[in-house]
What we know:
By secondary structure, this protein is of the alpha/beta class. The protein has 2 domains: 2-153 and 200-301, Metallo-beta-lactamase, Chain A (4-Layer Sandwich); 159-195, no CATH class. The chain is 26% helix and 26% strand. It has helices spanning 40-46, 64-67, 70-79, 94-103, 159-164, 171-177, 192-195, 215-221, 238-243, 249-259, 277-284, and strands spanning 2-8, 22-27, 30-34, 54-58, 86-91, 113-118, 122-126, 131-136, 144-149, 182-183, 189-190, 204-208, 226-230, 263-267, 290-292, 297-301. The chain has a 7-stranded mixed beta sheet with strand order 6-5-4-3-2-1-16. Helix 1 links the parallel strand 3 and strand 4 (54-58). Helix 8 (215-221) packs across helix 10 (249-259). The chain starts with a strand and ends with a strand. The structure holds zinc ion (ZN) (2 copies). One zinc ion is lined by residues 61, 63, 139, 210. One zinc ion (ZN) binds next to loops.
Amino acid sequence: MITITTLGTGSGKPTPERNVSCTTVFREGELILFDCGEGTQVQLTRARLRPGAIKIICITHFHGDHINGLPGLLGTLQLNQRTEPLYLIGPEGLERYVRTLARLGVVGMRYPLKFIEVTRPGEVYRCQDFSITADRLKHRITCWGYRLTEPDRPGRFDVEAAKAAGVPPGPLFGRLQRGETLTLDDGTVVTPDQVMGKARPGLSLAYCCDTQPCEGVQRLAQGVDVLMHEGTYAPDEGRMAHQRGHSTMADAARAALKAGASRLIITHVSPKYTRTDGFERAVREIFPHTRIARDLDVFEMAYKH
Ligand SMILES: [Zn+2]
Ligand SMILES: [Zn+2]
């Protein structure tokens, strides 16, 4: 299971209602952060998420409402005596920025930092359990959207079906699970699909913030379980939104619909809106499975099988 927690859902500047951009993704005991706006540390505490569990921080772009929380958080990890490596993924210049902070003494970091600067669309990180790809968004400065994708997991091994096919329990079970076709002593051929259930699809989510409607969003969001998309402006403020390199909440819904996403979570809401329930109703007319996130909302993504 993957748990998404929205630590900051506002744009521009923090308000008592909405902190600025940060979303956490918790899977298998590890945290991945998308953006790190000011106040991220306090919000982590409020959400009862452990900074030590952070493995990767993905920064979309260098606007302050997406990165101003990074120096403080990096410093705290040192105070907490971190020794594990931390992956920092973001636009070109991220390493120079963090190294400068260290050189000036703003933050001290003795734990290993692994910088991955994104220079072109494609895969930026891969481990056994998931991969992260980046694609270009359309904003006022260079901005990257991200997609986390888990590989499909093999189907479940059906012990009874294997026994019924004449396979003796033992190492032959493992060979079938690894996809081998067996020929038994009596000449019977047993194929993996006789004893394995259907492959179980992994989960996927895309994080697209800040952007106006663009192809990069569509590529990242194609068929995702969850699309997190900015909706800085009200559904009917398209002109203003696009002039400023942003989207309306209706743009976000259209992107989710076009990409065949299962759910949409809207974030990066302008602080000028004190209520959003009317917007949510309007946007659901376009894409029903939409939520306009609030700070500290928790969304669970469960496997279908
Ligand atoms: Zn922003
Ligand atoms: Zn921005």
